[in-house]
Amino acid sequence: MIENDQPFMPAIFPYLISTLDQYYGIDQPIEQELATKREHFYTTKIPNKKLKILITTFWEYPLIGGLQKYINTLKIGLENLGHSVDVIALNSFSPEEMKKLRNHFSEEFKQFFLNRYGSFNEKILHNISKLSSYYMMLKNFDLSQYDIIHAQDRYTANVLGMLNQSFQKPLLFTPHGFMTQNRLKFNLMEEGSVEQNYFWAIDSHAIKNANQVIVLCDIFRPILGNLGAADNKITTVHTGIDFGVGNFQKKSRNKTVITCIARLRPRKGHKYLFEALALIKDKLKNVEVRIVGDGEMRKDLEKQVKQLRLKNITFLGSRNDIPKLLSESDIFVLPTTSDTLPLSIIEAMFSNQAILTTNCGGIPEIIEDNYSGIIVEPANYKQLADKLLLLLQKKSLREELAQNAYAYAQRHLTVNKMVRKIEEVYQSLL
């Protein structure tokens, strides 16, 4: 806990307070006012002892999820190349201490906002309290021992950007989502609101703090460009995986298996898949549809299946035997309406089956339409139905698409390929 009898004045993330000052029309700049106050937050620089890499995330690690899987793959791949890698996450520190810090900062910032602006925003209060708590825990950590720091989200890029002022280590940032832009796109945030201004400052300073931004696909480039990133500051490295599907052999059977692997959430587009299947349900004899994954939409989707009178759909829930399930599949479908570079598509590419998906995010960067898969427009269930029927009727087409996808994955989407490219970026900054 921080003990201080003086009036609270936030000494870290001054640019976020400046952003709020501009929104609320506060004329007195705070940056210079906080310049001297910030000094005591920084630790003394210690000479490097050995080559080490620090990967940071604002979310829990380890945990089931695409981000956590990416971090684990990157860590193991770098260690296999002889590097020493540490991962620090929000749950790396004492939960009790973190809770005390969050409560402390929440009260302090709440009073500060009320005194300065006459009001406070709950989401901003929650975020800046959490950021400050993470900062306080990390500031006592010896960052000088690392040669490279790689932030895996915009929040740790802000925290490390502040801490790194006294160390000047090469700092990299990899966004795994479209950040504030996506929240505006899906009406989860109001255009011109204080939230947009605040989180836009988070985004832009994540870019500003990074020596290099490594993105999962090129679709990030215009978004990051709007935030001030020069194109030569951005490196695209597609996700690579080590997928053990080779241990399973496809069995000859009388039915065709369609598999969809995704969390059951609105943006994954399951409802469009079911609407498509309803249009061709009289052509689905000897077809099994497997829905793999769980989530908040499960009850609604099960209800939709019942209403559409679809008899051949099975909800398998969350599974830990994805390679086996994909080895038994003939067609992989991902009807997503918003995505970056879905890991499930890359897994399907390694599993020798035809892929049917949508024109979203970085998907067209790894799936070439009518060559290594088939791409339809998001939310277009009629187009989805037509292409699905085509794949069901033409086994030769399925096999050709599958072979081309597998060949591309072997050349470009292995762990070794990904890690080697990221290592090159690290070396270029040393």
Q: Tell me the number of helical segments per DSSP (H or I, 4 or more residues long).
A: 17
Decide which structural class fits the backbone. Answer: alpha/beta
- Cα(first) to Cα(last) distance is 37 Å
* CATH architecture heading of the largest domain: 3-Layer(aba) Sandwich
Strand order of the largest sheet: 2-1-3-4-5-6
Domains, number: 2
CATH topology of the largest domain: Rossmann fold
The run of helices and strands is HHEHEHHEHEHHEHEEHEHEHEHEHEHHH
Using the alpha-carbon principal axes, give the shape: globular
Helix content: 40-55%
Q: Note poorly predicted spans.
A: 40-50
Highest-level CATH class of the largest domain: Alpha Beta
| Average pLDDT rating | 91
How much of the sequence lies in strands comes to: 5-15%
Q: What summary fits the major beta sheet? A: 6 strands, parallel
What's the β-strand tally?
12
